[in-house]
Fold this protein.
Amino acid sequence: MRKKIIAGNWKMNMTPSQAVELVNTLKPLVANEEVDVVFCVPAIDIIPAIEAAKGSNIQIGAENMYFKDNGAFTGEISPDMLVDAGVKYVIIGHSERREYFAETDETVNLKVVKAFEKGLTPIICCGESLIQREQGVTMDWIRMQIKIAFQNVTAEQAATAVIAYEPIWAIGTGKVATTEQAQEVCSGIRACIAEIYDEATAAAIRIQYGGSVSAASAPELFAQADIDGGLVGGASLKPDFGKIVNYK
Ligand code: 13P
């Protein structure tokens, strides 16, 4: 039985002092040991957020990292920096990073491989645009994203990964995918993992849905056979996140 993982993606919101305040506000509201609760926060908020989350069930994650160990890469954050700060999860290849910061399937793959090498759990994002959905190529597109993201990743590593299916048209739009659409793609992703690896790896890997998840939509989405939780943007900055974490 896969443990649900419900993660917030704060994106570029919250100063360090606001981060501490938000963690303190949400701490009692997300105290649900039945699910993994992760707050992925801006790099500068990681250390104060970890400090504020001490003694709670909240795990702090990062929103990005670079695929090199160290060196002349001005402005980047290395995986060792995240590990040393106490981070366990890192979002890789969010569609906003692909769109605004030129991330490609190849750099996503390099980051995924590096995250595993350093003992971090990647939350690997994939998802189609509205045009691709209308063209009927959603699953082809996502299968390609997944197949490239998992190059040079062992079955043992893949079994511990988290995949976030986030249709781009559903992000920040208030237009959540229907339960059927979300389940269909998450099930297709699991089948793709079974093809690349085997049934056991596919059964172990956790697949989240993301895109306008709210307290209202979470219960039905998270009840689907292949949806193992959510990656939540806007609603993760509000007390509503407590309701999402306690969706049952
Ligand atoms: P929203 O929940 O704000 O639509 O954002 C989803 C997302 O991009 C999470 O990574």
Residues 117 and 157 are 9 Å apart (CA to CA). Strands lie at 5-9, 36-41, 58-62, 89-92, 121-126, 162-165, 206-210, 229-232. The mean pLDDT is 98.
